Each structure stands twice: as structure tokens, then as C-alpha cells.
Amino acid sequence: MITLHANRSLESYLAIRFVLLTAVLLALCGVILYQLEMAPWNIAILLGLIGLFCAITLNKIYRRIIATYERSLLHIESMRVEDYNQYAKSDFKQGTAAELHQQLRALSEHLAEQKSRYDQHAFLVYQLIDQLNIPILVFNQKNKLSYANGAFSMLYAQPWQMFRNASPKLLNLSKRDNKWQLEKQSQQWQISQSEFIDDGQTHQLLVFTNIESVKRESQQTAWQQIIRVMSHEIRNSLTPVSSLAESLATRSSSERDQKALALIHERCHHLQDFVSRYSSLSQQFNLAPKQINTAQLKERLNGLFNEQQLDISLHCQWLWADQTFLEQVLINLIKNAVEAGANDIALAISQHGKQHEITVTDNGHGFANLDNLFVPLFTTKTQGQGIGLNFCRNIVEQHNGSIALENNKQGGVTVTIKLPSNIS
User: Fold this and answer.
1) 325: helix, coil or strand?
2) What architecture is domain 122-213?
3) 3-class DSSP state of 8
4) How far apart, in whole angstroms, are the C-alpha atoms of residue 221 and residue 410?
5) Is 81 helix (H, G, I), strand (E, B) or coil?
6) Residue 423 CB burial class (10 angstroms; 0-12, 13-18, ≥19)
7) Which residue, 324, 332, 227, is CA-closest to 270?
8) Is there a contact between 15 and 7 (Cβ–Cβ < 8 Å)?
9) Do residues 400 and 420 make contact, with C-beta atoms less than 8 angstroms apart?
10) Sign of the C-alpha dihedral, residues 131, 134, 135, 139?
């Protein structure tokens, strides 16, 4: 027995009711034809025609109703795959079916607008990633590397495209206690993570921060405070010394004394210029790079260290740097060698491709701890202030160069400075 409550789908509901309606209609027609005393054969033919007509008509109604829902399902499937250009057209201009398709279209347009916003946000995220000079990695929903910026090479010394679709394990990344860590790296990196949606998928964003850079900034702040206090006293001391040297030079009849006083006067001006431009460490150095004649640089350094065994060898004619700051760097390095007990100091200037290389080699006692050399205020000297090497590194890096120190096997230290041949 078929009950009205046994229907589990719209199709079965319509089919059962159409069958019942056809049966009732045929029964009524049969009764009417029988009362009209028609022949049984004629009654059967008429009832068959009436049944066929009802079946065809009700089948069309059935198909039209089901088609309305099928089109709606196709529209929903298009939205599920984020194809918002496909719309389901209703056969009805008014009523519930028309309202259903209208609401689906409105929902599709709304989702298309949201997707456009998500795409714009994702595009801005990728643009921001490209602009930053810290390593940023993007992993897709399958936990594979899908994007990274140019600073990726700071971690792996290769472009990120070489590691496309790589797993975190292949990149020496591990996750412990919901925190990412980078294994087998000499530099200390702190990793921050966040998520964003792109193309309907959740992506993980890993941002790498070099802890050493953060520490250097805090150290720089301490150094800045010291320089600000000292700069005032240095200026006040240099001014009378410069004036006195200039005055004595005009009165002296000895050519040697005049040269010595002139050198004192000149160095006072250099130091005044140095203090003026270096007193504010919170700002970028105002470098004025230009071509420096290495022969003149050699002559000036020999004039300052004429009592020391300073051997300067030149293998190129020009350098590209800020003369005042570069001279101060070299003076600091040579003084460090002298204070380390060196009696043989060699300075060499050469060019290799698009880089100039300056090496300062001495036979002093070297460094017991190379790890803290560039830390401000750290010094092994009794009267040292611990800012010289840090200053040298900052100056060299402002020239887009690099500086490295290493102990020699036979004793002493070699300092290697590499500078680009030209700074744009």
C-alpha cells in the first residue's frame, strides 16, 4: 500500500500523485461513459486515449518542474567551482521558481564580487612580499612551496623557483609546538606565520626575521647615545687645536714643522667633518662617494703612520668610496693592529672584476673571540671604547660592501674589505 508519507524525494512525490490523479480521472471518465451506455470496446479505447493524453501532459509538467531544480543545481555547482559567469535561466517569469533563480543569480554576483576582493587582496599580498627585503615563503593548501620573494636566496643561496613545490622538510623547516623552526642554519632566524586565502585555498605565510639584525639595531641605539654625548666635546676640542695648528704653522720657519702642523690642521677638519656627519646614527649615512686616487690615499696614510712599519701595495689606480669615511675606517684598522702589538702591517688594494678589495694584514696577537668583534661597547683593550670595528662595518655596508676578519695561522689578523667598483 502506498502512503503519502512514504515519499523521500520530489520525484517520487510527483510520480505517485500524478499516477493517483490519472487513476481517479480514468475512473470518473469510465463511470460517465458507462452511464452513457457506450459499448465496452469504445469505452476502453476512449479511456486509453484519455490515459495517454494525461500521461503525456503530466510528464511534461513533471519534466518542467524537475528541470527547474536541475538548473538550480547546475548553477550551484558553478558557484562551487567559482565559475560565476554561468547563470540558470528560469522557465517562469514570476512566482517561487522565478524568485529562486533570481536569488541564486544575486548570490552568484555577490560571491563573484567577494572573489574579486579576495583576488585583489592576494595580489596586494604578493606585491608586498616582493617589496620586502626579508625572506617570506608561501605554502599552499597541500603544504608545498608555491611562492617566495627575492630574499629567499638569503636562506638557501638559490632562487626560490628552484624549490617550487618543495615540502617544508626539504627546506629544513620543522614545526614544533605550533612554531616553525629552521634547522641547520648558522644565522638565527625567528619565523612568524599567518594565513590568507587565494583562489579559494588557504595559504600559509612564513616571515623570517634575522635576530642578529634586531640585536644590531638595539646595539646601534646604545652606540648612538654615546656618540651624541661625545660629539659635543670632540667639536669643542678640535676647533682650538685646528686654530692653534694653523697659527703655529704661519709662524714656524721649519718646513718639517709646517708640514706636521698642516697635517694636524687637515686631520682636525676631517675629524670635524666626520663627527658632523656621524653624530646622528639614527639616520642613513650621508655618503658622498667619488673616485679616490689610491696613490694619494697611500701618501696620506704613510704621513699618518710614518713611524710604523706600514707597507702599502697598490694594484689598481682608483677606488670608489667616500674618502673621509674610508680613510677613517683604514685608520681604525691600522691603529687596532698597532695596539695589538703588530710591527709589520701590510695594506693591499686591488680590483677583482667589479669589486675592489682592501686587505689589512698584521702580525699582532690576534683576537681570542671573533664572535663579539662587531658588538658595540665590546672591547678587549684597557682604554678601548668598543665602537671602532662596529663603525667600520657600518661604513663598509653603507657602501654596499662587506668586511670580514680572521686570525692568521702564523699570528695576527687579516681584515678583508670588498667594495663595489661603482655605487649607483
Assistant:
1) helix
2) 2-Layer Sandwich (3.30)
3) coil
4) 37
5) coil
6) middle
7) 324
8) no
9) yes
10) negative
Look up residue 244 and give its three cell numbers.
692653534
What is the CA angle 250-251-252, rounded to 5? Answer: 100
Q: Which amino acid is at 198?
A: D
Query: What stretches of 201-254 show up as alpha helix (H) in DSSP?
Result: 211-251
Closest CA relative to residue 289, chosen from 330, 326, 317: 326
d(CA 180, CA 204): 11
pTM metric for this prediction: 0.41
Q: Is the dihedral of CA 151, 154, 160, 163 positive or negative?
A: negative
Please give the CATH superfamily to which domain 288-424 belongs. Answer: Histidine kinase-like ATPase, C-terminal domain (3.30.565.10)
Q: Give 235's strand partners.
A: none
Q: Residue 43: which residues within 8 A CB-CB, separation 6 or more?
A: 30, 33, 34
C-alpha 298/C-alpha 380 separation (Å) is 29
Q: Is 288-424 in the same CATH topology as 122-213?
A: no
**Triad 417, 223, 323: Cα angle to 5°:** 40
Q: How many residues does the chain have?
A: 424
* Alpha-carbon span 369 to 384, nearest angstrom: 16
Q: What is the pLDDT along the chain (424 residues), one digit of tens a residue?
A: 445 455 578 888 888 888 899 899 989 988 888 888 888 888 888 889 988 998 999 889 888 888 888 888 888 888 887 777 777 777 778 888 888 888 888 888 888 787 777 777 777 778 888 888 788 899 998 999 999 988 887 788 788 888 999 999 898 888 888 888 887 655 578 888 888 777 778 888 898 887 766 666 666 666 666 666 667 677 777 778 888 888 887 887 788 888 888 888 888 887 777 776 555 444 556 788 899 999 999 988 888 886 667 899 999 999 999 998 999 899 989 988 888 888 889 999 999 877 899 999 999 888 776 655 565 444 454 443 345 677 788 888 888 788 888 888 888 899 999 998 874 4
Task: Please report how many Cα atoms fall inside a 13 Å half-sphere around the Cα of residue 338, on the Cβ side.
Answer: 13
Amino acid at 319: L
| Coil, helix or strand at residue 412 | coil
Domain ranges of the chain: 4-110, 122-213, 288-424
Cα separation, 51 vs 45, whole angstroms: 10
308: nearest Cα among 259, 336, 333, 344? 344
